[in-house]
Amino acid sequence: MQTIDLNIELLRCFLAVTECKSFTAAGARLHRSQSAISVRIQKLEAVLGQQLFERTSRCVKLTRQGEQLLPYAKKLLASNDELVNTLCAPELSGRLRIGIVEYLAPQRLPQIVTKLRGLYPNIRLEIKLALSRELLRALDANEIDVAIAKRDDHRSDGETLFQEPLHWVSSEAAPELTEPSLPLCLLPAPCHYRAIAVSALSNFERAWVEALTATSIYGVQLAVESGVGITVLGASAITAKMKIINSALAMPVLPSIEIAAFGITPANKMLVAPFIEQLQR
């Protein structure tokens, strides 16, 4: 049987395209051009002698062979990263109190924390989930060391991490919306997503009613998944049971928000770097 040595960089590109469902978005994640990503995927397909993606003008989808490769690619990359971190990374230890805006990747956060604790067992990680305003207040009060939050127009500090696109979302199982007023599932004020949704609909002169107010992003997600109403969520908070309805209902265009890390200092930079790296992935 022929032995083929797979290139980790090519597998990382494959996984990025799979998760982003776009060559352009995968390039942005890996800080490469769309054409560079395309070339690497072609190289991987040539090495394996298989077509891994079905490409159309509207979407990128895995072929049957691509679906077979996916779980192995994840395992290989995880093993590679764990090995590199174990052998090459400095021994990190200490206490890190980190605050994360709660609507950012809520369903992925437990896996991120679990992985970091496995890679860096000597870091004592304390997590606070809240809205951006509360996190920045806690940072200023020295209740947390670092805040991962929405960029505040009134603050000049903070290190930009990435842009989070916002979408109108509904449930995959929900019936078509026929009511004259859109039923919204929202967090209570003051909430940036709530303000964006209300402002966009008001400017669009679209009627709406507050179908449900939840005290957590998880509550909003459950309500939308159950078909109670629609909401505005960042791309990282959209679950498999939801669908984006930006164009389906001719909804008003939403902005992207800028996520930044506040409170990074020379003293805590090494401790917080692995967490930020996992979050960006």
- Biggest sheet architecture: 7 strands, mixed
Task: Give the strand content.
Answer: 15-25%
Total number of strands: 11
- CATH topology-level name of the largest domain: D-Maltodextrin-Binding Protein, domain 2
Q: Output mean pLDDT.
A: 86
CATH class of the largest domain: Alpha Beta
Look at the structure and name the CATH superfamily of the largest domain: Periplasmic binding protein-like II
Structural class: alpha/beta
- The percent of residues in helical segments reads 40-55%
Total of DSSP H or I helical runs spanning 4+ residues:
9
Shape: globular
Low-confidence stretches: none
What sequence of helices (H) and strands (E) makes up the elements? HHHEEHEHEHEEEHEHEEEH
Second rung of CATH, namely the architecture of the largest domain: 3-Layer(aba) Sandwich
In total, the number of domains comes to: 3
Distance separating the two termini: 35 Å
Question: How does this model look, in words?
Answer:
- There is one protein chain.
- The protein has 281 residues and is an alpha/beta fold.
- The protein has 3 domains: 8-88, Arc Repressor Mutant, subunit A; 94-163 and 258-280, Periplasmic binding protein-like II (D-Maltodextrin-Binding Protein, domain 2), CATH 3.40.190; 164-255, D-Maltodextrin-Binding Protein, domain 2 (3-Layer(aba) Sandwich).
- The protein contains 9 helices and 11 strands.
- The chain has helices spanning 8-20, 23-30, 34-48, 64-88, 109-119, 132-140, 192-203, 217-225, 269-280; strands at 53-55, 60-62, 94-101, 123-130, 146-150, 159-171, 182-186, 208-213, 231-234, 242-244, 256-262.
- Strands 3, 4, 5, 6, 9, 10 and 11 form a 7-stranded mixed β-sheet that branches. Strands 1-2 form a two-stranded antiparallel ribbon. It has a two-stranded parallel sheet with strand order 7-8.
- A hairpin with a 4-residue loop joins strand 1 (53-55) and strand 2.
- Helix 1 packs across helix 2 (23-30) and helix 1 crosses helix 4 (64-88).
- The longest helix has 25 residues, at 64-88.
- It is globular and about 65 Å long.
